[in-house]
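Um, can you check?
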Amino acid sequence: MPLTSELTLAPSPRAAADARRWVGDICQRLERADLVECAELGVSELVANAIIHANAPFKVRVRGTASHPRIEVADGSTSPPVPPTPMPGDDDLDLLLTFGRGLSMVAQCAVAWGATIENDGKIVWFEPATHMRDQDAAEWVIDHHDVTDTEPTSEAAVAVRLLGVDMPLYTSLHRQYNELRRELRLLSLSHQSDYPLAGDLTAMFSSFERQFPDTYREQMRAAEKAGRPRVDLSFAMVREAAPIFVTMTEMFDVADAFCRAERLLSMARTPRQRELQNWLLGELVHQLDGAEATPWTGRGDDSPSASQVG
């Protein structure tokens, strides 16, 4: 069963120790004592670097499954982490007592690791190994998520309206989508040989995102910030986008099946999230074909309750 557990950290020197104990406890509860040493060392280093070099908010998460857990440290800075440097000296005790040693320690503790740079911060992540490696440490991957504005300017653009969008439900759906999109992107970067389709799916998701203009995202952000329960949206799209939305409706169902089978570490959509997304995509397809807008009439939010450990 996929899991998501999160801890918010105070911006203090104790944050690394708090994260270390929390992650170690989760590994024990998952019956993965073999990962405790690398998980604790890796998260200590990432939190220390975040506190020293980045901005709040600081959070640590454990995602994935007991078989393949992934530890993430999120902060409010969009600056990429400093690449690993060679480990100095030969004194292991001195090395382990040094605060903020650089990311080389994370590479030695991980089977895969990297960073995702978002618009409002970054996530540095690693999949803990069962033992530290002095040689052949994992190479990192970095993912910049940048959606290019595609505001339609041609006369062929169609005015689209989404009426009565349930904002709490949409927010939970958007969070699930971001996790899925990032999961595929990381697989395409760090596990391409094991997941050869991840790159193609990532490109498909990117094409999907480019169909939405900035005016759509701005209206959504404003409604979420204002705490509005429902919102009406109005924006322009090109007719050529319709086939992409048809394809993505099918792809999201396939992704749900992969998530439920634990072939992906993300959570599948809830039935209510799926209903909202199918309505939204269906409205785009129908209106681009000339139909009138049909308001959302579904019930309220059923955002997924994350599988918590502890």
